[in-house]
Specification:
β4 (about 40-45) and β5 form a beta hairpin. This protein is about 25% helix and about 35% strand. The model is unreliable at about 1-15 (pLDDT under 50). The chain is globular, with a radius of gyration of 18 Å. The strands form 3 sheets. Strands 3, 4, 5, 6, 7 and 8 form a 6-stranded mixed β-sheet that branches. The protein has a 6-stranded mixed β-sheet with strand order 9-14-13-10-11-12, covered by helices on one side. It has a two-stranded antiparallel ribbon with strand order 1-2. It is of the alpha/beta class. The N and C termini lie far apart (about 35 Å).
Length: about 230
């Protein structure tokens, strides 16, 4: 853990005489609080850049666990192409460690320490979910509920059971509404559909909330869609 803390001190970097700071997203409670054998990448919020984002990945080692430190002010439109680039870089590395994972680094406010959100197997798509699943799923084994997130105040739950379900809600009420809509006998797959203008902080808040959906026969899809 000491190595991780020393590493995260490097969130304040000096480059060409200019300080660069990553404001980590906050999470109220993280299930993952300690990771060993790590290297780090940084996504900086930089107003001087054309797209306001800068990736620093110079010290990544392919066989280690990767901590990706993303500034919470960045949007998904800015972040996701870089995340996909890093995922591909690790998958295609000459030297691999099948046990090495990828994590987003967060500020765990409940502990006053670091927390981590794993995204190793998340597959990000920049196409509509309906188009993707129509090409890949010939038979729908589970009932699919889409969480369409325009903002944390404007979330729509859509699904098909015996009829079309469409429910407007917000993040504080999301889990309550899902538990009302999902019958315990259902086999349900939750799919995230995310507006590209969402801030990375909002994305982490949504992921954290969804992870607390403790219902039998409910799985969270590793496919996430940016629109």
């Amino acid at each position: 853990m000491k190595y991780i803390l020393l590493l995260l001190v490097a969130l304040l970097l000096l480059s060409c005489g200019k300080e660069k700071v990553v404001l980590l997203p906050e999470i109220s409670h993280s299930e993952i609080t300690e990771i060993n054998d790590v290297s780090a990448a940084y996504l900086f919020y930089d107003e001087t850049q054309k797209d306001s984002v800068e990736l620093n990945r110079k010290n990544l080692i392919s066989t280690t666990n990767w901590l990706v430190n993303v500034d919470k002010r960045l949007t998904l439109k800015q972040v996701i192409p870089h995340i996909k680039f890093l995922q591909d870089k690790k998958k295609n590395a000459g030297h691999k460690n099948e046990n090495a994972k990828n994590y987003f680094t967060c500020n765990d406010t409940s502990r006053g320490n670091l927390g981590f959100v794993e995204f190793t197997d998340v597959d990000y798509h920049q196409e509509p979910a309906g188009e993707y699943f129509s090409k890949t799923s010939s038979i729908l084994k589970n009932i699919r509920f889409s969480i369409i997130t325009y903002s944390l105040e404007n979330i729509e739950i859509m699904g098909f059971t015996d009829y079309l379900i469409s429910k407007k809600t917000n993040l504080p009420d999301l889990i309550f509404q899902l538990k009302k809509l999902i019958n315990p006998d259902m086999k349900v797959e939750i799919v995230l559909n995310l507006n590209e203008i969402l801030k990375f902080q909002d994305y982490i808040s949504l992921k954290s909330s969804i992870s607390k959906l403790d219902l039998q026969n409910v799985i969270i899809s590793n496919h996430e869609f940016i629109f």
